[in-house]
Each structure stands twice: as structure tokens, then as C-alpha cells.
Amino acid sequence: MCRYFREKSSYLGWGKTKEDVYVAATSSIFQNLTSQKLLAVHPSPSAKLFKISNYVSDVDLIRNTTARYAFIVDAQTWDDLHSVFTPDADIHFTWLGDHGKVTGVENIGKLIGASAANTVSQHSLSTQSIEVTGADTAVAKTYVTVIHEGTETHRCPGERFNPWGWYGDKLVKTKVDGKEDWRIVERLVKLNLPLGGNIDLLSSA
Questions:
Q1: Distance CA 53, CA 173 (A)
Q2: How far apart are CA 166 and CA 17, in angstroms?
Q3: pLDDT, tens digit, for every residue of 136-156?
Q4: DSSP per residue over 62-127, as a string?
Q5: Which of 67, 70, 102, 64 minimizes the C-alpha distance to 188?
Q6: In this structure, which long-range contacts are made by residues 125-128, counting pairs with CB atoms below 8 Å and at least 24 apart in sequence?
């Protein structure tokens, strides 16, 4: 095998071995990756090692922001909504009419918290489109499937409510603890399919 890779490549006609060509090609790939900030050179010249860069794109940061919402709502840790929304954010659960529209992250937590009282839930996010529209602005659309179930202390114990819909978000870039991140400034919650189950499961509906 070693002899094979060291044989002259007559069809190349460059007087180089296949091993030489392989090394040159690999070097070119690393140069392209490092120039695009996908790889970072290890600081030790003697080691000549490469490591994955900790660079995170705006799209990845936005994806994490939208994912945090699902975890927070299911855990019902309403104070953590500050890591998703701006202080003056708007949200509108369109199928609830004017009752489902509030402004301010504190009021968002109160509305969702009242609706989710004595329930357990799982918010599953799937298909998603993200577009960075400016230096510090972006829009996102995310499909969501939700299951709410009443606990034993709920007036509808064991019953379920299942909306299938999507989130339409407008986001702005900000800094948190000196690091760039994204927050939702406006969210529309719309349905794709008719509501399933018992909507009365939501206490404030």
C-alpha cells in the first residue's frame, strides 16, 4: 500500500508522487476553511494542529433563541422569557382575537402562564426559515406542534388540546454579557390546521 502511494503518477506528468498531490490538495482545503473562519489554526506552531472554531453564525443564534422559547414554556419558567423576547416585545395568538395580544415580556409571561396553569405541555419545533434582513434585524418562520394536557388539579384532568401552526417572528440583534445574541421583538402565532381537542383546557381562553 505504501509503495502504491509513492509510485510516480505517470498520467499527471508532473514528476510528483500521489502522496505529494494528496498533501497539496489537503493543504488547499485547510486554507479555504480557515479563510472562511470554519477552522482555526492551533496557536502552537510546533503542534501544527487544527481545531474547530467557536464562531457561531447569526442563523444559529436565532435558531437557539426560538428553541429556548419551547423549553421555557414547557418548563413554565416564565422569568426566563427575557432570554427570548425584548422587554417591549409583542405577541399575538391570533385565534384568541384581541385577548391573545399583549405587549411586554412580563405580560407575555402572565398570559401564557395563566393559560398553562395546571397543565403540562410539549412544544415541538420543526420546519424553519430564517432570513437576516439587516445588520441587526431578521425574520423567521417556524412550524410548531403543541400538546397540552390537564393535570389532576385542572378542571379538565387528562384532557388534551393540540394546536398545529407556526410562529412568525421579527428579531433584533443585541448584546448579552458582552456577547451578541438575538431577541424576538414581535411574534405572530397562527394556525395551519383546525384546533384539536378541548380549547377550554386553557384556563384563560
A1: 21
A2: 57
A3: 999 999 999 999 999 999 888
A4: HHHHHHHHHHHHHHT-GGGGGGTEEEEEEEEEGGGGGGGEEESHHHHHHHHHHHTTTEEEEEEEEE
A5: 102
A6: 125/66, 125/67, 125/70, 128/63, 128/66
The angle subtended at Cα 104 by Cα 103 and Cα 107, nearest 5°, is: 85
User: Given CA atoms 122, 128, 133, 135 in this order, what sign does their dihedral have?
Assistant: positive
CA–CA separation, 47 and 60 (whole Å): 31
- Side chain identity, residue 85: F
pLDDT tens figures, 176-186: 999 999 999 99
Sign of the four-CA dihedral 43, 49, 54, 56:
positive
Element containing residue 34 per DSSP (H, E): helix 18-35
Query: What torsion do the CA atoms of 169, 61, 146, 80 make, to the nearest 10 degrees?
Result: -90
Using CA atoms, how far apart are residues 128 and 163, in angstroms rounded to an integer? Answer: 17
Enter the pTM of the model: 0.72
Neighbour-count burial of 69, counting CB atoms closer than 10 A to its CB (0-12 exposed, 13-18 middle, 19+ buried): buried
CB 140 within 8 A of CB 169: yes
